[in-house]
Amino acid sequence: MHQKDGVCFTSSSLKIPLPSSNLSLSQTLASQLARTRHSALQFIDSLRNRSNYVKNPPTRSSESTKSKLGIRSLIRSSPLLCSASLSLTNHNHNIARSSLLCSASLSLSQQGSTESTQSGLEVSQKGQSATAGRYDEERVLISEVLVRNKDGEELERKDLEMEALTALKACRANSALTVREVQEDVHRIIDSGYFSSCMPVAVDTRDGIRLVFQVEPNQEFHGLVCEGANVLPSKFLEDAFRDGHGKVVNLKRLDEVINSINGWYMERGLFGLVSGVDIFSGGILRLQVAEAEVNNISIRFLDRKTGEPTKGKTKPETILRQLTTKKGQVYSMLQGKRDVDTVSTMGLMADVSIIPQPAGDAGKVDLIMNVVERPSGGFSAGGGISSGITSGPLSGLIGSFAYSHRNLFGRNQKLNISLERGQIDSIFRINYTDPWIEGDDKRTSRTIIVQNSRTPGTLVHGNQHDNSSLSIGRVTAGVEFSRPIRPKWSGTAGIIFQHAGARDEKGNPIIKDFYGSPLTASGKPYDDMLLAKFESVYTGSGDQGSSMFAFNMEQGLPVMPEWLFFNRVNARARKGVEIGPARLLLSLSGGHVVGNFSPHEAFAIGGTNSVRGYEEGAVGSGRSYVVGCSEVSFPMLGPVEGVIFADYGHDLWSGPNVPGDPAGARYKPGSGYGYGFGIRVDSPLGPLRLEYAFNDKQAKRFHFGVGYRN
Fold this sequence. Notes:
The protein has a 17-stranded antiparallel beta sheet that branches. Strands 1-7-8-6 form a four-stranded mixed beta sheet, covered by helices on one side. Strands 3-2-5-4 form a four-stranded mixed beta sheet. It is elongated. Helix 1 (25-55) packs across helix 4 (125-137) and helix 5 (158-167) packs across helix 6 (179-191). It is of the alpha+beta class.
């Protein structure tokens, strides 16, 4: 790791042990405190005996006739030989979750002692248990409290002395203390984080008993070595330890840093944590980080009914290439969740889950993805409403019949053959999609389309005086390629051939409408065109209220002299804003076409997905257009929403530029607005929309639609 701003990140003899399965911390402390209490009680006895000795000194005769027994009795009662110890060693404490404070000692002795013996310190276990509580509460007067190093000398750093004195609560000069209070202050000094050990020493002086806390400060931090952190940013470590460089290691602060490192992994869903800490001589601290790398990923197919493993139809490599989690990576739960969502969006699986399991190699994990497959294909039937028919809702009803297969050859390739039929509309379509071309690393998809359709021509050439109707027939074939460009952006490019012309009610080709306006650009019954298509789409979160932007361009290529040559661009934008429980949705669309194009391809304005309050295409049709919409939706009851809306559209005075001016012949205004209210109901087909609108001509109109506005 490189050096930065005076922080030397290089390679700590305090060993902070890892969690183990030994005795619990509470059991260890209980055992050690019991031993401490036994010795401390002896200390209380010695202080009491010393007090009695001072109050009742021996006579001269007794001094001259001392016996060995008397000497032993004096030695036994002297405080010079009293000692007690407290050792707190944390061998199974989780460093990632609580304090690293791990050792302390309590020893009580007196300066100037040259003799010691254990014979005078014997206390029976039976007597100890009977008098422990009384001695815990017995107080001894302390005349002075000092903090010194382990050799009894003054600390070189006065700031550390102040840290220790500040930590004391009960131990003050000229105060009467119990053993328990001394023990608690030892803990407080250790809990400050600056000291690796603390030894209270009682010193008998002329003025009384002096209590000296002999402490051993931690080393100064001069360098860091971090092992096993492959994904943890070095800058994160540098920022975490920079403030401590050249300062005494504070174990509480170190514990906070370790928790922040573990928190960094947790926030990102990564399998990683600090597994060990060492402080070496010279102030070098070593962090050992354990990161669980992915060893292997396997796919397990489960039966839909029994849940038992079975043989799947989908090739495992088709699923594995969808995953962003790869072998050798540190496993991320968040990334795993995204992979589950990605596999679910393939449309092949009824259920997807990932189960991590320990691998044979230490520090690695095997991933098993359980999948339950859906039926891969079948027939379906349905219905809908055509938005291009204005002579009444029943005339717009259409029925559909389709066969689809969503997993050809086990490679997630999709085939759809469908037929839609109404009183005027008819569409026969064959659509084949490979969502990820094999061998491509950019997730490029390929779609091949063949379509024969007949749609109403009333959007541009409606309102015939003789009440006759015309339709536009199109035969289309092409191929499109799509791929993600960047996050939330996708792009599509393709080439499409189209053969289109107008027909009357009997199906006969026609080249002019009732007003004499041409219906084709070439003057022939049909126009041929080869279109190069490009589209780019931005989507926010993907729901209807999120931001969206789409840009589409089509270029007619005059490969043959009679083929049309034109350029058409179209753009749409949408922005949603939450206003309490309601949602404001703003949308804007516009387009322009230049060149020689078919009149029926003009931009039509007005209708359910344009300016509500008008019939389809009744506002105008031109080479250019712009339509704006604002609506506020709010929850009402369960799946029902209410909506208030306002729309405006304009052809930018381009209607007369369409061959034959079909809008002018029908006295379309070229601009208009509408407003109204409605309800929406969620359904399996999508939102069902029922809206009532008023336009600027004081006309009123119901609109019914399925799905969101375009």
